[in-house]
Structure formats: structure tokens, C-alpha cells
Design brief:
- The chain is 31% helix and 20% strand.
- It contains twelve helices and 16 strands.
- The strands form three sheets. Strands 1, 2, 3, 4, 10, 11, 12, 13, 14 and 15 form a ten-stranded antiparallel sheet that branches. A three-stranded antiparallel sheet has the order 5-9-6. The chain has a three-stranded mixed sheet with strand order 8-7-16.
- It is globular, with a radius of gyration of 21 Å.
- The relative contact order is 0.17.
């Protein structure tokens, strides 16, 4: 296990990567906090070993200072490369939050309204069958709240090894429009939809003239100094840092395809970044008095916080297990709003090609963390068909540990 020295925050190992927000070391932790973090490291390490996850990294931030960072295991098992703060993980659906920020940027510049019909920008969508009314009733706001009625998966099928990972061109997606239907009245309920976010990415390209990747790089990644973050295929000079990913099922470890191309779905899940870069994104999301002028140049704080407001309640798939903490979840504008242990968090997760990621931000105490795993593990005791059980269970266990044992100590420092 590689542990980043607390006295140096993450800065001692990653100063060139981190934004000015993290340019000075965090104060040394109290004995109580250090003991709690030591115990958390042991818990995290044991959970990784018990689950069989090959590699993972986690970063914890409080009041714009990196409190703790930890990496465990291997970024690349075949080459025995350890995971570390520069290991590049695939953040998958967390990309959606950047797509939402880009849409809000365009709204702020007067280029669109969230209540515009999506067919105003993508008239091809009029080919979609809408049994509930006029497809013109579907708005950008519906897409940003997963309430437009589109199906969940990009492909309606994908079961052959020779099929591309995702559609690679817009024409391939558009060709499916006559075979696509709206599944419920837009705005009437929540249902997670990947195609809906791709349509938002298309709007960004049509209004700016840039590809999605170029637009977000120019308007989010570069201003945040996320210089080792990118979309899809890894630049040659960063290949040495790119994590491989693995499926672990029934005790058998299988390497996932390396460095996959998310194609036309890039706005839905194409982000790759090391944990040190992702810390900069968290700093932006929580706001930083020292950098707020720069951050407002990306998106004004009031507009970002508008994205954090609950719009639709997400009904749970099933009641909580006996003894489990009930979770309330709502959808904001491409951010999730979750209640855990009586506290409200802004969050999003990602999962693709055996990578699993998550971040949580607690606005009240200005505390946040992000975690990335490079293994989708299923343990023998998990329910059949629960493809995320092993890694998902550890992800939830880490969350609950931090929320109940670490976050309260950081809140007490306020």
C-alpha cells in the first residue's frame, strides 16, 4: 500500500500536478484525526484484499486542503506497476457532470435555454416515436435531469466481441432514431439515460463548432490545470500512467480491453484522469475563496450551485436491507443529491469497462472525497446477476466509513 504522508497532504508527491489551491501543505492532523485515518487505511486495505480489487486510489479534501490520499495495489498487474497519485483512471459517467457544466456555460452566454426543445438543435430526433405527445416537448432540462423518457443504454444490443465498444460516429446513433421510442411522458419521472447525455454533447458541438473533447478541454480542463486529464485514447506520453482494468468473477481475473474509445458517447463517459487532477475538479465544485475569480470564469458559483439543487426524487429500486441506513436520492442538473446519515451530499458515480469511480461533496462542511477502482469484482457470496456487487459493496463501505468516522472529525475543525 502506498500512503501519502499526511504532513505533506498530497503536495509532497504531486505538487507539479495540483492547482494553486493545494500549493501549501495542510496543517498536521490532530492525534485523533491521524489515528482515525490510520484505522481507515487499514479498513480500506483489508477491503481491497478481501474483494480482490487490483488497484485503487482515493483522495480526501476538507476546506480546500488535501487531508489525505491513499493508493493501494497495482495500476497494471502484468507489469507490476503500483497505483499512485498519477495513475490515470477512467471516470466513466462522472463525465456527465462536465457535460452539464458545459451546457450551463452556453446558457450563461445566451446561446441556449434549458427549456429549449432538443429538436431545435437536433431535428433528426423528430424520427423518434413518442406515444405520449410531440417529441418537441422534450427539453434540454429533461435531458439534464434524466426525465426525457429515452432508454438507458446507448446500444439496444451489444453481445458480440466483434461489436464496437460504443457507436463511433453520430450517424450510427442517428440511424437508430426511427427504431427508438419515448418510454414515458417527459418530465413525469426519473430514468437514467445515456443517450440523452449524448444529445447534450451534440448540442455543445453544434453551438460551438468544437468537438466535445476540444470544447471541454479548452473551457474546463485547461482552466482547472488538469493537464494529465483527457478523453478516450491516451496520449502517447501518458501511456506509462494509464491504469489497466480487470473483471473478477468467480475468482477468475480477466483483463478488460485496454484504453477503450467511447466514440460518440464521449460526453456521456469518456473522461480519464489521475486522482491528483480530479482533486482540482473537486476544489472547483466546492468553491475556493483563493481561486473563486478564476472559477467564476469557468462557471459562476450561483450557476454551479443551481446544478446542485434537487429537481426530481429518485424512487429506490427496493426497500433498504434490514439494518441498512436508508438513502434518499434526488436528481439535480446532472449531479445527484443524496442524503446519508441525515446529511446532504452532491455526488456522481461512474462505471465502465471494469473501472468504478465515485465522488461525494458535503457543502455544509466543505468536505469531499473521490475514489477510483480498476477492478469490477463479483464475490461468491453476492447475488447472481449483481454485476457490481463486490466493488460496489466496498465503495459503499468506504463511503459509510468516511461519513460516520472521518467527516465528523473534519466538521469539528470548523
Amino acid at each position: 500500500m502506498r500512503r501519502i504522508a499526511l504532513a505533506l497532504a498530497v503536495v509532497g508527491l504531486a505538487a507539479p500536478l495540483l492547482s494553486p489551491a493545494f500549493a501549501s501543505p495542510a496543517p498536521a492532523p490532530s492525534k485523533e484525526l491521524k489515528k482515525a485515518l490510520d484505522e481507515f487505511h487499514a479498513f480500506y486495505k483489508k477491503g481491497m484484499a478481501d474483494t480482490g480489487i487490483v488497484g485503487s486510489s482515493l483522495i480526501l479534501i476538507h476546506d480546500n486542503q488535501v487531508v489525505d490520499g491513499i493508493s493501494y495495489g497495482l495500476a497494471d498487474k502484468e507489469r507490476a506497476i503500483p497505483a499512485g497519485e498519477r495513475t490515470i483512471y477512467h471516470w466513466a459517467s462522472i463525465t456527465k457532470t462536465m457535460t452539464g457544466i458545459a451546457i450551463m456555460q452556453l446558457r450563461d452566454r445566451g446561446l441556449l435555454s434549458l427549456d429549449d426543445p432538443i429538436v431545435k438543435y437536433i431535428p433528426e430526433l423528430r424520427q423518434v416515436h413518442d406515444p405520449f405527445g410531440d417529441i418537441g416537448d422534450v427539453t434540454l432540462r429533461h435531458l439534464m435531469t434524466h426525465s426525457a423518457g429515452f432508454r438507458g443504454a446507448t446500444w439496444p444490443w451489444k453481445d458480440k466481441p466483434w461489436q464496437p465498444h460504443e457507436p463511433t460516429r453520430w450517424e450510427q446513433l442517428a440511424a437508430m432514431f426511427p427504431y427508438t421510442e419515448i418510454e414515458f411522458k417527459p418530465g413525469s419521472k426519473w430514468s437514467y439515460s445515456n443517450p440523452g447525455i449524448i444529445f447534450l454533447g451534440r448540442v455543445i458541438e453544434l453551438l460551438t463548432g468544437d468537438s466535445y473533447e476540444v470544447y471541454v478541454d479548452k473551457n474546463i480542463l485547461k482552466p482547472l490545470e488538469m493537464h494529465e486529464s483527457y478523453f478516450d485514447a491516451t496520449p502517447y506520453h501518458l501511456l506509462k500512467n494509464r491504469a489497466r482494468s480487470y473483471f473478477l468473477t468467480g475468482g477468475e481475473l480477466t483483463a478488460a480491453p485496454f484504453d477503450v474509445d467511447t466514440g460518440i458517447t464521449v460526453s456521456n463517459g469518456g473522461l480519464n484522469a489521475p486522482i491528483a487532477d480530479f482533486a482540482k475538479y473537486l476544489d472547483f465544485l466546492m468553491g475556493n475563496p483563493k481561486r473563486q475569480a478564476d472559477y467564476d470564469g469557468i462557471l459562476k458559483r450561483a450557476l454551479l450551485e443551481e446544478m446542485f439543487q434537487p429537481v426530481l426524487r429518485i424512487e429506490p429500486d427496493a426497500p433498504p436491507a434490514p439494518g441498512a441506513e436508508p438513502v434518499e436520492e434526488s436528481q439535480g442538473l446532472l449531479f445527484f443529491i443524496e442524503k446519508h446519515f441525515g446529511r446532504t451530499f452532491v455526488a456522481h458515480s461512474g462505471g465502465q469497462n471494469a473501472f468504478e469511480t465515485h465522488f461525494y461533496y458535503h457543502p455544509e462542511t466543505r468536505t469531499a472525497y473521490a475514489v477510483a477502482f480498476n477492478t469490477l469484482a463479483v464475490t461468491g457470496e453476492d447475488k447472481p446477476g449483481d454485476s457490481k456487487a463486490g466493488t460496489g459493496k466496498l465503495d459503499r463501505a468506504v463511503r459509510d466509513y468516511l461519513f460516520t468516522k472521518i467527516f465528523p472529525l473534519l466538521a469539528a475543525k470548523k
